[in-house]
Design goal:
single chain; alpha+beta; Arc Repressor Mutant, subunit A; four-stranded antiparallel beta sheet; two-stranded antiparallel ribbon; 6 strands; rod-shaped; cell division; chromosome partition; WH_DNA-bd_sf; ScpB_csome_segregation
């Protein structure tokens, strides 16, 4: 019959252990002749229904939170996502030169625009697809969102820092063309987003149709 002292010793070892312990692990630490199996059975019975239970996993024993209380151990927190240099440059080009197509972004950056970079900006809600340019191929144009203004604490696009300030802050390291200018706040305010003369208003229907074709 297991002694109370053996049960206490096994309990102490399991509580202090960094991981689960096998019968042999426990026996090596206990006095010779200690009934480890009986002590484990007694502890398992004593902890049944408690907030912490004694369980055997892969022939090793450990204390763990009762399964029905696992929800108490979860914690939700927001992890800020840092934009890559490519994403920062792409976002700056879109912000200062919207509405802008992928080809125009590539022309300014001098490298191919990664689909993943645009996907990240779209997923974060900083950028959205505005419409289609009324040019051959009807390319998609991109623009910023209200979430972009909120994220950077801007009342409107007119509050964007100048290109020189962006470069000085290390957020933009590009040799921009001479016609790369600040947006006109009169043409695009914080609460309105009129389509440019060269954009097609039926964009959303067209895009969804193409997306369905790709999926099929």
């Amino acid at each position: 019959m297991v002694t109370a002292e053996t049960e206490r010793e096994v309990e102490a070892l399991l509580f202090a252990a960094a991981g689960a312990l096998s019968l042999d692990d426990l026996a090596r630490r206990l006095p010779e002749g200690a009934d480890v199996e009986a002590a484990l059975a007694a502890l398992a019975a004593r902890y049944t229904g408690r907030g912490v239970e004694l369980v055997c996993v892969a022939d090793r024993w450990r204390f763990q939170t009762a399964a029905d209380l696992a929800w108490l151990m979860t914690e939700e927190r927001d992890e800020p996502r840092r934009l890559s240099k490519a994403a920062q440059e792409t976002l700056a080009i879109i912000a200062y030169h919207q509405p802008v197509t992928r080809a125009e972004i590539e022309a300014v950056r001098g490298v191919a625009a990664s689909r993943g970079t645009l996907d990240v900006l779209l997923e974060l809600g900083l950028v959205r697809m505005r419409g289609r340019r009324r040019t051959p191929g009807r390319p998609v144009t991109y623009g910023t969102t209200e979430a972009f203004l909120e994220h950077y604490g801007l009342a409107s696009l007119a509050d964007l820092p100048g290109v020189a300030e962006m470069k000085a802050a290390g957020l933009l390291s590009l040799d921009l063309p001479a016609d790369f200018a600040m947006p006109d706040p009169a043409a695009l305010g914080p609460d309105e987003d009129p389509l440019e003369a060269g954009e097609a208003p039926e964009f959303h229907t067209d895009y969804l149709g193409e997306a369905e074709e790709l999926e099929n």
